[in-house]
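Intended use. Records like the one below are meant for learning the mapping from a protein sequence to its folded structure. Do not use them to infer anything beyond what is encoded.
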Amino acid sequence: MPFQADRPRVLAYIQACTHACHSYALEGRAALEAVRRAQQFLPAQGDDATRAWLLCLEAEYLAGLGDRQVAERLQQAEEAFHRPRPHRERAWTRFLDTGRMAAFQLSVQYDWATNDR
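Structure written out for the chain above:
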């Protein structure tokens, strides 16, 4: 069965998504920690669309906290976004397109500007 060979990676991905989705129900530092836990489930290489999504979420939460790491996370998200190989990415990460990336950038820049400390 094809799923069995990829089972550990799929289960790790499900854990990552679970923590990421949970972050939407949280605020502030708790949301940031949830998305950082999600990132720990990704493999060192690959799953770049998912990585880009999680880095964008992290940038949003950092911006809301006024943290200066925002620019670095957005840059990392952009780099990850441009690395994916569509035939190797998970079908459910295809929501992350250039329009969504632009929306993340706008959201982060707005939050950063209004929460700059």
